Amino acid sequence: MAFIPQKDSFQPIQITDELNKLLDVLPPNIYHHIKNHPECNHLIEVVMDLGRLPEARFSEYAIYLGTTSISAADLEYTIQRIGTFSDDNRAGIEKTLHRISAIRNRKGSVVGLTCRIGRAVFGSISIIRDLVEIGKSLLLLGRPGVGKTTALREIARVLADDFHKRVVIIDTSNEIAGDSDVPHPSIGKARRMQVSTPELQHKVMIEAVENHMPEVIVIDEIGTELEALAARTIAERGVQLVGTAHGNEIENLMKNPTLSDLVGGIQAVTLGDEEAKRRGCQKTVLERKAPPTFEIAVEMLERQKWSIHQDVAYTIDTLLRSGKPNTEIRTVNQDGEINIAQETFDDTELLKTPEYRQQPKTATQPRGWRASGKMIPIPSLRSKDANKLGETLEFDKLLDASWYQFENKDNGSKAKTFNLEGEDLPIYVYPYGIGRSHLEQVIKILQLPIMVTKDLDSADVVLALRSYLKNQSKLRQVTKMRQIPIHGVKSNTIPQITCTLQKLLGVSEMQVSKTADLRLFTRGDNDDELEALEEARLAIEQIVLPKCQPVELLPRSPKVRGMQHELIEHYRLQSDSSGEEPNRRLRIYPI
After folding, report:
1. Cα separations in angstroms, 394 against 377, 379, 385, 387
2. C-beta of residue 291 within 8 angstroms of C-beta of residue 313
3. Residue 261 φ then ψ, to 5°
4. How far apart are CA 359 and CA 315, in angstroms?
5. Are strands 55-58 and 167-171 parallel, antiparallel or unpaired?
6. Burial class (CB in 10 A: 0-12, 13-18, 19+), 130
């Protein structure tokens, strides 16, 4: 693991703890012991249990305060000077961030108090400031006392004050913004909604979105299934979520049936015989059920050492395949310099996706574009550089000059053609995260001189989803080592795959054809599917494009609507669905 220093500016950390206000509510004998302690500014909490010596806890050790045990009068002395206990047995001190938690006996009487110091640490999230400002939902995990709530409070202030976003804090125990109707200044311009009882937190979360138009919702301690479902509902409405959950690591959430929905949920899937044989696994496997509610997860290992999962979906999928996810370890040294430690690359862990497993390496040398040592696009009249190269061939003539043939399985050799520019065809593509059926369908219907290969060593180019490339450093390292170029695809749809493949062949600007080939967007020879696609095509070509008017199509099934969406995307138009099933239908909008 190598540390990479970040050049981003580090904000000096400023700590505000208002310790005197907590000491004022403690019995006099405890007050004097803490006040005279040389490290009182590093105090974490004070524990007072009936009949036991009072205890002061610091980050590395704990000490007893005097030799006198706590009496009922000592407990009552503190209770009378703090706020009212809520249903979760938590109270606070007016206009501070301190939290006092009670332990009760069977009769309901208080027999113990835990007085935790609440601190506003300004500048504490510089370590993940780049993740906060991109607008993705962020989940903080970690053991109690590691600083989750402190970080949550600072994130709310930064988003509200520095980025001028509408931030609403769901403050169940008044722990984030203090025990007062007036929020503590540490949250900046963020607004705070108090929750009367913890059982109603999920309702207040939904109420905040419906009534107050927030851009960011901040939640502390998501712990029930209803709260997890409310968080998903908020995320699907386009609101950024920042929250904490019970669990030290992301694997804890996977194993927790109550909170697993935060990371997409886990379900058992039974595979067919052929699919199980292709994957080389059992017929029953665990897979992620849905997209994660939180796109980024941060495991707070220590106060200045955090583990970052920038793509939760990738992390969950990798863990379910018994792999090791690609994570970052961020730390802050004494000079305020942010360092990132990344795991060293392991070639054996490369590309373990559900769709493809890496094949045994062969002794054949790479050929085609990559072996030539130059990556010159195949020229055509549609290319901006066609005149410079003096090329007069039409793109269709270039396709006719090549011939398409499957790999010879007997000797492993490739069938090649040779064009006027001296480049070998077809081009061998290694797909990563791209639907193989979609890719082969585009190649077959458009008759592109492209072959799909499962052997990375013999590939001329890697075709991968952009979302995978953002955090898949292993893939980038291996392709760089093998000198294989990577082409990113925006989404796993027919139009995006088609556009990328044609650019790969040298078409600099994809021109939308006057009449789309409907075979690209079907999943078979179903007449209903072709009829629905023909309806959409005629609406686009006869009304939306020439007359610039929106058109509403007939109700269709979800599967058919998905095909219509892809066809509309091919024409560079926007569409959405409206209505309720079974009358849900598409509406196409002009440019």
Report:
1. 14, 9, 14, 12
2. yes
3. -65, -25
4. 23
5. unpaired
6. exposed
Helix, strand, or coil (residue 105): coil
Q: Tokens in use for 392? A: 């007069």
Domains of the chain as residue ranges with CATH:
18-118 (3.30.450.90), 122-344 (3.40.50.300), 369-504 (3.40.50), 518-589 (3.30.1370.50)
Smallest CA-to-CA distance from 366 within 289, 428, 410, 275 is with 428
587 CB neighbour count, 10 Å cutoff:
14
Cβ neighbours of 228 (radius 10 Å) = 23
Rounded Cα gap, residues 74 and 47, in angstroms: 12
Identify residue 437 by its one-letter amino acid code: S
Which H or E run includes 242? strand 240-245
The Cβ of residue 10 has, within 10 Å, a number of other Cβ atoms equal to 16
Q: Which two tokens stand for residue 202?
A: 């999920």
Band of pLDDT at residue 158, cut at 50, 70 and 90: very high
CB atoms within 10 A of CB 518: 18
DSSP per-residue letters across 391-436: ----HHHHHHHS------TTT-----EE-TTS-EESEEEEEESS-H
DSSP per-residue letters across 477-493: HHHHHTT--EEEESSSS
What digits encode the pLDDT tens for the residues 70-107? 999 999 999 999 988 888 898 888 888 888 999 999 99
**CA–CA dist 137, 311 (Å, integer):** 11
CA distance 463 to 355: 14
The angle that helices 201-212 and 225-236 make with each other, rounded to 10 degrees, is: 20
**Of 31, 42, 261, residue with least CA distance to 139:** 261
Query: What pLDDT was estimated at residue 394?
Result: 39
Ramachandran angles phi, psi of 584, nearest 5°: -75, 135
**pLDDT, tens digit, for every residue of 453-499?**
877 777 888 888 777 676 666 777 777 777 788 888 877 777 778 77
